[in-house]
Amino acid sequence: MSNENVLEMRNVHKSFPGVKALKGVDLTIKKGSVHALMGENGAGKSTLMKILYGIFHPEEGEVIFKGQPYSVKSPIDAINRGISMIPQEISPCPNLTVASNVFLGKEITANGVKLLNQKQMVKETQALFDDLGIDIDPSVMMSEISIANAQLVAIATAVSYNADLVIMDEPTSALTEKEIDKLYDIIRDLRDKKKIAVVYISHKLDEIFTICDEVSVLRDGEYIGSDSIENFDKDRLISMMVGRTMDEFFHKEEAVIGDVLLEVKDMSLSRKFKNVSFQLKQGEVLGVAGLMGAGRTEVMEALFGYRPADSGEIFIKGEKVEIKEPIDAIKHGIAFVTEDRKLTGIFPELSIKDNMIMPDIENYLKGGLLDSKKIKENCQTQREAIAIKTPTLEQLIKNLSGGNQQKVLISRWLLTTPEILILDEPTRGIDVGAKSEIHRLIGELAKMGKSIIMISSEMPEILSMSDRIMVMHEGKCSGEISRKDATQEKILALATGEQL
Amino acid sequence: MAQQKIISRPSLGAFMNKYGIVVIFIGLCVILSIVSPAFLSIRNITNVIRQVSIIGIVSMGVTFCIITTGIDLSSGSMIALISVVVASMSQNAVSDSQPISIVMPILFAILISLALGAILGTINGSLTAFGKIPPFIATLGMMTAAKGAAALYTQGRPVGNLKDAFTFIGTGSFIGIPIPIWIYIVMAVLSHILLSKTKFGRHVFAIGGNEQAARICGINVEKTLVKVYAYAGFLTAVSAIMLTARTSAGNPTYGLAYELDAIASTVIGGTSLSGGIGSIPFCVIGALIIGVLNNGMDLLGVNAYWQQIVKGFIIVIAVLIDARKQKRK
Amino acid sequence: MAQQKIISRPSLGAFMNKYGIVVIFIGLCVILSIVSPAFLSIRNITNVIRQVSIIGIVSMGVTFCIITTGIDLSSGSMIALISVVVASMSQNAVSDSQPISIVMPILFAILISLALGAILGTINGSLTAFGKIPPFIATLGMMTAAKGAAALYTQGRPVGNLKDAFTFIGTGSFIGIPIPIWIYIVMAVLSHILLSKTKFGRHVFAIGGNEQAARICGINVEKTLVKVYAYAGFLTAVSAIMLTARTSAGNPTYGLAYELDAIASTVIGGTSLSGGIGSIPFCVIGALIIGVLNNGMDLLGVNAYWQQIVKGFIIVIAVLIDARKQKRK
Amino acid sequence: NGQQDDGVITIGAAMSSFADKGQTYLQDGVRAFDAEYDDVEVLMTDAKDDPAVQLNQVETLLTKGVDAILIVPVDISALKPVFAKCKEDGVKLVIANRMPAEEFHDDFDVYTGSESIQAGLLQAEWVAEAMQPEGGKVGILMGPLGHEAAMMRTEGNKQIFDKYDNIEIVMDAEGKWDRAKGMQIAENWIQSGAGLNAIVCNNDEMAIGTLLAAEGANLADEDIIIAGIDATPDALEFLGEGLDVTVFQNMNAQGYNGAAACYKLVKGEMVEKWDWIPFELVTTENMDEYK
Ligand SMILES: Nc1ncnc2c1ncn2[C@@H]1O[C@H](COP(=O)(O)OP(=O)(O)OP(=O)(O)O)[C@@H](O)[C@H]1O
Ligand SMILES: Nc1ncnc2c1ncn2[C@@H]1O[C@H](COP(=O)(O)OP(=O)(O)OP(=O)(O)O)[C@@H](O)[C@H]1O
Ligand SMILES: [Mg+2]
Ligand SMILES: [Mg+2]
């Protein structure tokens, strides 16, 4: 083994009941480099990293770390050997303080006695945050900070172990541009000053080209190849990942835009958003941009009746409507694909079919009982229309990849034949292939005359998909830009509260 | 996408995964019929099913509750209360020897009792759905209060002297099969259809699987929960009526710890205490396992103290080797 | 950052949020001392605390279990088993009138009993941690088995004839305060430190808050869970010893439904059944509420039937108006 | 029906509870009979105080083909199905310890035991006399609400006390046969300042709890009358040292006689229908006979 390399994995195999997740994967990481691990959803990236972190154990394969054979039983072993990780699903303990989360598993105890030294932990956490330029109070409860901040805490925690290899599994999925820049600084600092290697997993190609030195690609549990970043361009990277060439972003065609279908007037919800007004026209895609925490989700939740607003009016086709509960919204032809698949989307233990029919079971009743033939027909049509990859519709949704889960959720709402479709971060955490399919689908729906509201934190997505862009800042509408005028700079300016 | 090669060849593992508990049940029956020849007689089998019917019907309601991530601790006490209420209304004649005696057509007595069960269930459901009290506590409160109410109603006495037309429900037969078994079958079919073939049933699973998502899908979570507990209360009332008819008396001491047997049956039948998973046919198997176990140990003359120890072990072991078991809650 | 505008002015709402249950407790005491003059006497207060100590100590163990999203249904039966074991080992003399009589220094008898409690707890913990059985079922199995074992050990009879040195634990006083109260205080302080000031306690909260996160941070979830149930078993043993000493006898019928009172105390004390939240001082308040309620109703001579009904209501109401209550589990 | 081929008579003994101490003495009596006769086999079941379980067990015993059933009914008003089943199978039925209502007196072969109410009457009579001439206030500690013995003993107490103008029942509570629970309630009663002159308990365990509470509150033996029922060995230890009176019921004899009646009935011998085993009052004067 060359002592250039901090880690070498050879011929790693891992299977789960019914799935062969890794089929002989190799991976070599150079010391002090940032190494991108790329692949579609379900390619096996997280599985490979979880093996390094002691969460999974491979059936076969060899791992050399810092020149020594490496095999760990649990995360604590991995940390002790010098590997730390930010897991893909950031999962803090909401009932503990930020400092306690950072020190979880390595609590500082007072000399002699075994009692916790809370003060010292807060102090050290503060020092760590200062060092990384993170502005979070270490003594507040984890449940009180935003998702973005929780992500930063997870990053800080992983860095705090002083490991030789830090694994970051989609660390930016909940971050906005500002925080991503901060993360870049942290990574550069690790690489250049401390000579620490970083494995970086992301579905956002821009990030790869900004921060990574080398790239390895997995596809379907197999190792496809590695190279240094200079030898890649986007097209080559995508074709390695998906096995064919394609565009990263689908560019929506101009659709015929009709009359105003939905109008929201002066909607407010205390401490969340204030006096939000906007219009949505038939066949239009309204992009909603803003920084994390701007209140976009809350506006849509209020519109949908999930978290009713304190005040404001909603008009559909010019008529005033009362929406107190989601069922009211559904009846008015509104559909809502939420941003958090796990929390507010899927019913993990139910089949794809059951997941699809949930909002409008009424339509599948025959004599009071469910009509399994009709359910099957409708779901089958939908499955073919948007190409959901699954052996059968009886499959439990939890067994699908993220992209396919997202498609099932979109199908769920399309089956209600909505006029207005709200999509909140429809492609978060979804690979390039699936993303482009979802974009194409949005385009087609608009063409069919559906009206779509799309919240997205990804600038290119907003720019390529929207007919009109509404920008929010701290719970207020800070401006609207039409498709032709829209630029990244203008959106960012509005999102950070500057006037145009 | 390539990752969807989910292999589904029918392996032994997959079979055990799905029907492990049935295998356990059959194994238990085989062992018992070997060690005790009386076990496999038609008469004994009828006996076992009739005995199981009471807990079995309660456990179907518990299955609904548990699927929504709830629980029902009040069923035992509700049986006590409803048993004295129905007994007091099914009297042969107004009599001083009984603490309470009301004479009315037994159909009314039964309807009133079923309604009472549903109302008590509705209270449980409202406390947990609207009051946001954990169902464990809401039904614990009901458990305590209903037991007291039962004793208060009769001043702690049993109520006998029941009409024959009423006791027929517990002791009679129809084409050779005891009425309680018929009722058990009807309730099982009804509950199965309700749970797996109706909108309501799907909503029950949805709430248990992901309450937030259920709300987004336009499901009225509160109303559904209330219905679930009301249905559980209704089934408990059915059970109480059967018990009263079978023993020809109502008694405020009835139903002691039935809720635990019902919950054990449900969980042995593979319903996950973390919600979202469960089925009525398996719940029936779960209840039969407990029933067969009790019957078998009596047939074998196992010492009463050892019976409890064995039962404790079997509960744990059945759940331990059931491959479908859910992760720790 | 903009989203950190979480307002935390110390409002009445926030206060009630945190100390609502203390207010309920004080309210209850005020009402009782008005309607019953005997309530506020030093003697009665000592009385109440001594009575509460037994359930109170059990409920502290239950608090640990519930914080990890677990539960312990076995404590009542474990009290029965340990009470007969410790009684059989604390005999004045070998005697034929007792079902089992062993003479040994009481220190040994106590240590063996505490160890037995911890071992039974360890079994509970191992079943749930390693066997992945839901704790509700693991401890339900233990509940059934331990009750049977207790009856088997003494053939269903009580064990009396205990050494005075032993009964002193339950009946004696030290500087004017009964020994059981001292033990309660010591156990409360010990448990409080363990839960809120040690690494172990921190890990207990972490597991309850997010088991996956705890695992990823290198916490040995299984080992921690086993320790939690072992500690609960140890506290149950302490309680069983106190009860035995206080009544000068062990009996396999002891402890009936104590687990429910202990769980109710814990939840009234604000511990969330969905895990991750709980504290020992509030658990003590919860137990005192139930204790004061029982005492007050006896003082007032409330009819036995009504006592249960009132208790059921109070359990529900205390949780209903406790603003800290967690969402439905 | 009748004897099996091997000449062994099987008796199904459907007991109410193995966890109830008094009942365990009755069960000992049954076992003693079983041990004495080689041609007898006893199958004993434990209904855990649940009438439905008892019914199940009777069914199971009949399925096994027993020659006679000896039953200690959990609930005397829930015996109808048992009568029907035994008649159907032509099996002899002996009832022990708890007497069914009069309307059922033709439905069984032998009753061995007494009437629960008698214990309550005897106990209360002694207490009422001891309270004279001043009279005073009484508290009653009851067994589980709805339990036959608890109900009838309390009923007996009330019948007697109602006869005395100067005696008033001011408290009653459910001590669930349990010493600890009884002790807790007694402590609270003593604290309440209600000034009870006597606490009458449905069983000895609760009476012992009461006297421990009285001791704890530094009440002297003379300050309060405490009465129990069962005359358990423990209770006899305390008799005269706080406990004033208890009532003996020869449980062992009930079990033994019950089994014997089954045996004779199956053999076709003549047996008296009513085998009364009376209650006996136990005080300091006669306590040595019961030790
Ligand atoms: N715990 C598990 N049990 C069963 N199957 C699993 C488990 N974890 C992962 N898999 C399966 O293994 C395969 C690889 O999953 P993995 O999470 O490694 O993909 P990934 O490349 O990280 O995808 P993504 O980009 O969506 O995060 C998938 O088919 C997945 O369904
Ligand atoms: N845990 C919390 N407690 C209180 N307020 C919060 C919390 N998290 C967020 N908020 C507030 O809610 C508002 C909106 O937050 P949210 O993150 O949902 O916005 P968003 O624009 O939808 O972001 P996203 O890009 O994630 O969709 C902000 O004003 C934020 O300060
Ligand atoms: Mg992944
Ligand atoms: Mg959002």
TrEMBL record, chain A:
Enzyme class, first EC level, given as a word: translocase
Start and end residues of each ABC transporter domain? 7-245, 255-499
> Could you tell me the Gene Ontology terms of the biological process aspect for this record?
monosaccharide transmembrane transport
MF terms in GO = ABC-type carbohydrate transporter activity; ATP binding; ATP hydrolysis activity
Listed under GO cellular component are: plasma membrane
The record ties this protein, via Pfam families, to:
ABC_tran
Q: What is its EC number?
A: 7.5.2.11
In the record, the note on similarity to other proteins reads: Belongs to the ABC transporter superfamily.
PANTHER family given in the database record: CARBOHYDRATE TRANSPORT ATP-BINDING PROTEIN MG119-RELATED, GALACTOSE_METHYL GALACTOSIDE IMPORT ATP-BINDING PROTEIN MGLA
Functional note: Part of an ABC transporter complex involved in carbohydrate import. Could be involved in ribose, galactose and/or methyl galactoside import. Responsible for energy coupling to the transport system.
- What is the name listed in the Swiss-Prot or TrEMBL entry for this protein? Ribose/galactose/methyl galactoside import ATP-binding protein
UniProt organism field: Candidatus Thalassospirochaeta sargassi
Automatic annotation (TrEMBL), chains B, C:
Sorted alphabetically, the keyword list is: Cell membrane, Membrane, Transmembrane, Transmembrane helix
Is Ribonucleoprotein among this UniProt entry's keywords? no
Q: Which residues cross the membrane?
A: 19-40, 52-71, 106-127, 133-153, 165-195, 228-245, 266-293, 305-323
Quote the protein name from its UniProt record: ABC transporter permease
Quote the cellular component terms of the Gene Ontology held in the record: plasma membrane
Q: Which InterPro entries match?
A: ABC_transp_permease
| Annotated compartments | Cell membrane
